[in-house]
Amino acid sequence: MEQFDLEMDKLKKRVLKMCSLVEEQLQLSMKAFEDEDMEIARQVIEMDDKVDKYDVKIDKAAMRLLALRQPVASDLRYIISAMTINSNLERIGDISVNLAENFMSLKKKPSFLDRSRLPQMADLVKMMIHNAIDSFINNDPGLAKKVIDDDDLLDRYNSENHRSLLEIIKESPENAEAAVAILFLCREMERLGDHATNIAENVFFILEAHIIKHKYEKFLHEEDDSDKDSSEK
User: Of 42, 71, 82, 192, which one is least surrounded by beta carbons within 10 A?
Assistant: First the structure.
């Protein structure tokens, strides 16, 4: 195996490890809240150093490949995307820490939680990030498309949540502090969804050489038209 292939293999293994580590960190941060478990929340915070170390290792490996090996075509797209995906994974890790810290400050779930959209947002975000990572690992553009589509539902949940929590504050001012904390957590869920979407968009770049950021609907429309034309021939 040539040196370039060895270095690419090492980069891919590190990115896969980062994916696994960050997904575990996110799952634990959600579990800390669901179970009201402060020990798990502390574990999430402690994991952040390891995530940061992998972040630096991946960036260094990718920069070395770009500077010394002059990759082309799919290898070049993978390396560029690996750096972008790595950045999004690191931010997902940071948000997981934010969630854990805020769960610790809340100490227990508020009684009005079921009137918010936080539980649905948490479930959807976990699925989006899992699917985004899987689409990257398995080179699956169909799964990447689902992640991007699901972001619209997450945004809708967030809008509904704002209305519900404002009503709770009006009805019970004594719950205002907890309601604001839940609003913050939902905002963090929305940010997690954005990072999952960024990863999914990079899957399209790796596989199709298309940059679809801000142009997703137009790109899919063109893809659908192309499929239709092919079937009619």
Answer: 42
